[in-house]
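Weekly sync, protein design subgroup
Attendees: M.S., D.O., the rotation student, P.L. (late)

Item 1: inverse folding check
M.S. brought a backbone from last month's batch and wanted to see whether the design step gives back something sensible before we order anything. D.O. pointed out we never logged the input encoding, so this time it goes straight into the notes. Structure tokens as presented (755 positions):
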């Protein structure tokens, strides 16, 4: 045994650091006052001297060249898909001529000086009073808010330096502005500023601004027009009178005119006249003619949020996104192809998103069916929260399965039930009696789902949803048991990415739209780092995937309308009250796709999830995965398959009549058992998967073979709800069944409405 005393115990890093600090402090304390001053002052002096020198050396070539100093060429943004194909670009790469001050109206020059730097012609690059005022504001607000910059400093900041608000960057700004003042005359500096200033969108310089906003030359700008353009400079996109907030623009114009009065450039009467002038703006051109306009908007907004609008546009960013243009075209085409049917059934809009479960990268995104629709086309319904209806059920079912609270074989009573005053109904207004969890979820029965919610707990369901990335579900809101049927609102993006976690064995990546960013000099400034988290156990993910991909369990309600032929694909629909929202979300291990159909104004429709969103989902999955090998969901080691009885869902000693094989958590097997008897040997009927008829026109289907009769009359499969012409059914065996081999023409049957 080793004795642990003061001198024998292990010295930690924290202890060593403390000892080192104490030694340095004792050393410093022993110095004379002069030496103490040198120790403190020398690093500060070195910083103050070396920073300007190093900054000047670093930016020497930029300061010496007017075009590089103005940094107004090769501006804009280029977005490519993951394969390098361009789908959006904006900006200018050509070199533009410098508009001399003599070709700019005096009102524009005076408005700029009065508003931005009234002592421009007196200072040497920076204003002591301006810096003092800004310093006071920064101290009182307890953060660096900027302000106090001269026109020269703004030229240095906007074109050469970063937007970071810190002491080092502000000190560099002073150094560069002094160097600019020493090299150029005041008129040259003012001219460069006017020719390089950012006026919003992709507009740089007074020549572009005068044309874009007023369709005229800079020399023809009026006092009112000049004050308006100068007014928007602090935040061009926000203050723009055409693409931003017109009220803010008017306030800024008033401020500029007031400063012009204060500084003696105009009279109060001229200000009043200018404010009364009704400005006529040039038509705004919608430059987003991309194949993925909503996706492009999302990418650009992320760039703006991260780097700032002016920096993004001025830096000429080339962005490789996560988009797959081929899949984007497929999704958009399928939405367009189904719009006539959607409109006939009371819908007006549709959206869709495709996500790679193995990375979280968004492969396709259609925010609205028609970008050019003036009422709702610009609204991105993929990121807009709506009630998901029954598509929310797998979220809490999956965790209840993962925790062993229920199993796929658990028997639930689908009967009229009063939950303390809450009386939900199934969409069909009928009841199935005792039914397994597998069949209840596959057929989207509401009453069993509310019972699962009761077992699992509302708070647990909310926590599960939020853990799976559905942050729109509010953990402070009391949803009640209606949460079981999708009463909480959630965006399609978040819902689809939650399903993507099921596809990826419970591992979920945050959704991403950007892979890499290069600047105009082709230097990479950003690369996505993919990180995942386990949001549900692999066993829970497998059990929910097994249920949602069970075509036979789903068939009694949906037929084969949601089946992706030859492929293991999980899917769930959702429909809200009065069919205001129609959802279909599904996945394979390679791809998760979500589709929403509805009206932006929340008005009712005549059909639900499977009929409205389902066809878009099925077509997109088939085309996206064409040529890709079918990949079943991986069975985790914690999952076992056991025979159970149809009668009570209990474990059976052997497979045979009256039993079927079901998947379970190895730690949550049924506690009941059964011994199949003759009375229990009832094999659950496996209905044939029949195609869903095209409800837009009567169709002609051939009466299928009837089932084997037992001395009674058979009913053939001659179409939904139809009777075969040749008899009452198919060929009866051992009973009354005539041969119904003729052709049947069923009436038009509305698609099944699902919850």
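Designed sequence read out in the meeting:
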């Amino acid at each position: 045994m080793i004795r642990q005393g003061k001198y024998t115990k292990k010295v930690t890093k924290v202890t060593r650091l403390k000892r080192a600090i104490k030694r340095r402090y004792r050393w410093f304390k022993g110095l004379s006052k002069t030496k103490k001053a040198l120790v403190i002052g020398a690093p500060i002096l070195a910083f103050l001297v070396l920073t300007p020198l190093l900054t000047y050396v670093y930016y020497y070539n930029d300061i010496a060249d007017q075009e590089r100093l103005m940094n107004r060429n090769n501006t804009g943004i280029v977005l490519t898909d993951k394969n390098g194909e361009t789908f959006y670009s904006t900006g200018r790469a050509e070199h533009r001529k410098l508009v001399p001050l003599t070709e700019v109206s005096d009102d524009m020059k005076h408005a700029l000086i009065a508003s931005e730097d009234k002592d421009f012609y007196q200072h040497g690059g920076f204003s002591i009073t301006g810096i003092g005022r800004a310093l006071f504001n920064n101290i009182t607000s307890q953060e660096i808010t900027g302000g106090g910059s001269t026109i020269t400093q703004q030229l240095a900041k906007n074109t050469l330096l970063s937007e970071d608000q810190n002491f080092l960057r502000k000190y560099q700004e002073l150094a560069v502005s002094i160097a600019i003042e020493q090299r150029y005359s005041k008129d040259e500096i003012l001219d460069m500023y006017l020719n390089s200033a950012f006026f919003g969108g992709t507009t740089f310089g007074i020549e572009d601004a005068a044309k874009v906003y007023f369709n005229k030359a800079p020399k023809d700008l009026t006092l009112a027009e000049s004050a308006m353009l100068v007014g928007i400079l602090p935040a061009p996109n926000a203050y723009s009178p055409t693409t931003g907030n017109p009220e803010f623009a008017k306030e800024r114009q008033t401020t500029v005119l007031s400063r012009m009065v204060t500084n003696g450039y105009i009279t109060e009467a001229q200000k009043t006249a200018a404010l009364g002038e009704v400005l006529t703006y040039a038509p705004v051109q919608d430059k987003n003619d991309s194949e993925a306009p909503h996706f492009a908007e999302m990418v650009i907004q992320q760039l703006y949020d991260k780097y700032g609008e002016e920096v993004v546009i001025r830096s000429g960013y080339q962005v490789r996104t996560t988009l797959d243009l081929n899949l984007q075209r497929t999704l958009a085409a399928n939405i367009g192809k189904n719009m006539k049917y959607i409109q006939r059934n009371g819908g007006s809009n549709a959206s869709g998103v495709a996500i790679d479960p193995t990375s979280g990268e968004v492969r396709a995104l259609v925010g609205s069916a028609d970008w050019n629709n003036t009422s709702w086309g610009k609204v991105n319904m993929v990121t807009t929260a709506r009630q998901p209806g029954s598509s929310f059920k797998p979220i809490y079912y999956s965790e209840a399965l993962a925790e062993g609270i229920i199993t796929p074989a658990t028997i639930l009573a689908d009967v009229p039930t009063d939950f303390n005053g809450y009386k939900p109904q199934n969409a069909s207004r009928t009841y199935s009696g005792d039914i397994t969890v597998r069949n209840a979820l596959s057929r989207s029965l509401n009453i069993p789902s509310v019972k699962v919610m009761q077992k699992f707990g509302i708070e647990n369901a909310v926590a599960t949803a939020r853990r799976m990335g559905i942050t729109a579900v509010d953990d402070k809101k009391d949803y009640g048991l209606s949460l079981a049927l999708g009463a909480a609102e959630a965006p399609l993006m978040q819902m689809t990415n939650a399903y993507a976690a099921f596809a990826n064995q419970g591992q979920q990546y945050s959704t991403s739209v950007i892979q890499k960013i290069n600047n105009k000099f082709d230097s990479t400034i950003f690369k996505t780092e993919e990180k995942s988290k386990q949001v549900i156990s692999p066993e829970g993910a497998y059990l929910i995937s097994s249920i949602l991909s069970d075509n036979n369990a789903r068939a009694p309600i949906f037929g084969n309308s949601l089946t992706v032929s030859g492929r293991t694909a999980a899917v769930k629909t959702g429909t809200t009250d009065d069919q205001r929202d129609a959802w279909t979300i599904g996945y394979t291990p390679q791809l998760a796709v979500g589709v929403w159909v509805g009206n932006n104004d929340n008005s009712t429709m005549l059909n639900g999830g499977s009929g409205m969103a389902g066809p878009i989902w099925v077509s997109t999955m088939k085309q996206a995965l064409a040529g890709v090998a079918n990949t079943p969901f991986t069975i985790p080691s914690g999952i076992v398959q056991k025979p159970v009885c149809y009668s009570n869902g209990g474990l059976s000693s052997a497979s045979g009549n009256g039993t079927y094989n079901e998947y379970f958590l190895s730690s949550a097997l049924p506690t009941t058992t059964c011994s199949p008897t003759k009375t229990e040997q009832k094999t659950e009927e496996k209905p044939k998967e029949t195609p869903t008829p095209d409800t837009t026109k009567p169709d002609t289907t051939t009466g299928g073979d009837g089932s084997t009769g037992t001395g009674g009359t058979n009913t053939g499969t001659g179409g939904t709800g139809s009777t075969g012409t040749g008899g009452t059914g198919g060929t009866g065996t051992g009973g009354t069944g005539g041969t119904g081999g003729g052709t049947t023409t069923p009436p038009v049957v509305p698609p099944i409405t699902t919850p």
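Discussion: Residues 101 and 191 are 6 Å apart (CA to CA). Confidence is low (pLDDT under 50) at residues 141-147, 676-755.
Action: P.L. to compare against the previous round before Friday.
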